[in-house]
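Limitations
The structure tokens in this dataset are predictions for the assembled complex, not deposited experimental models. Users should treat interface geometry with appropriate caution, especially where small molecules or nucleic acid strands are included. An illustrative entry is reproduced here so readers can see what is and is not provided.
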Amino acid sequence: MKTIADTWPIVKGDYTVGNPRSRIAVVTLASQINPSPEVALWGSSKTENLGVEKIIVNTISNSNIRYILICGMESRGHLAGNSLLSIHTNGIDKKGRIIGSEGAIPFIENISREAVKRFQQQVVLLDRIGLTDLTEIMKIVRKYKDRGEVYPEEPLVAISQKKRQSTFTLPRSGDIIVSEEFVMDSAAGIVCPTKDF
Amino acid sequence: MFKFQKEQEIVNIAGVKIGGQPGELPTVLAGTIFYDKHEIVKDVARGLFDRAAAEKLINLQEASAEETGNPHIIHIFGTTPESITRYIDFVAEISEAPFLIDSPEGNVRSHAAEYVSEIGLADKAIYNSINMSINGSEIEALALSDIDSSIILGFNATDSSLQGRMEMLETGAGLLEEGLLSIADRCGIINKLIDPSMTPMGNGAGVALRMTITAKAKWGHPTGSGIHNAPSAWNWLNKKKEKDPVLYKICDVGSTCLQQAAAGDFILYGPIEYAPYVFPMAAMSDIMISEAVADLDIEPASRHPVNLLV
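Predicted assembly:
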């Protein structure tokens, strides 16, 4: 069975790739802690929305990852660690809000419920928020890096395509389109409502 | 360049005018002080800092503003009620400029709103920001305060498209019971500064530029952003930074011009240390934009860089 998506890690971020076959990834929240090559992915996460999405996407696209250590200092106000724990425990509501998160804006935009469910099933989160001691972190890494089996399903690539298609009806007036409502005449240099053109 | 058919509002906050047609007023620039990991801060929680160094930085920004004609705002960032109180006291003591009160935590913003009202500085304060995280207690605190100027943030965490951001301001986009503009009205905000929300590149940073034009065309309120957040959140650039710090600074400071070309009225340009670079960069853009709209019946202000530097 294929365990790692072809283009893994799928989304870019502030992380370092170590051993893709390791069972553990490390999230250092708002702290910068020197990475270890013994983990699959090691990086920071400061936001309760885009940061959480990136962790989920890069985790479920590698079936080898079964544990995520959440350590480092929490980012004030955003509470990325609290949000990651909450989405793992509670999921998201109909509006995309992470249930139970205390972060400022804990909403998911770019991933599906299926992706969240897979994340919940694939990994166990190790909550050590506040831990910054590298020696202690490495003890946990070594305890879990070879533990357990690969998740018994192929990697899931779950990220919506960047929106390149038009999301509105293009106005037929004006020669420069600003939005559905506004156009510009380049000779006159005036931005005005489509209906007034 | 272009002119908006919609009348463009100009607000006056403690003597600093913001808004208008492109090329009319110089771009207002706000440098951040006491930001996360700012080396002059000795105790983040209590707000203890090197006062001499802080004063020097504020003077640096004031001198830059004086030279180019771009007015300035001091962007205060604090993470606790105690720290932001100290920062406000200090900034108000050494500068007449308006200041932004900013924190990632609603209770700190609320405290700051209450504090500036108590000490009679609300007319100099700009709340940063009314955004989709606002809750009942923060609305109440802001409404009870004397603050009448606020940034209104177009961030929509579930729909980063232009439409999604505009709807957050107009209707709440299905996530709030009312739009942020309406909430701002309820909070007594008269001077509404629209910030389309600079999300990271890859997550719609460019949309914020188009929204600047759309928001001004639709409402006419002053509009601007913290555009430097796009390059500063760019991992590729941050890796290059280690080898070539100048490269990073060029992208960070240079992003200012993009927001200006998209009709931005104000820019939160990031670390205040960059003032000597950002102000000339912004002045250059202002001059070119002003010349570009010269035949559109737009008269630059007397202290516009086009009247001071060329």
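Some entries come with short summary sentences. For this one: The longest helix of chain A spans residues 50-60.
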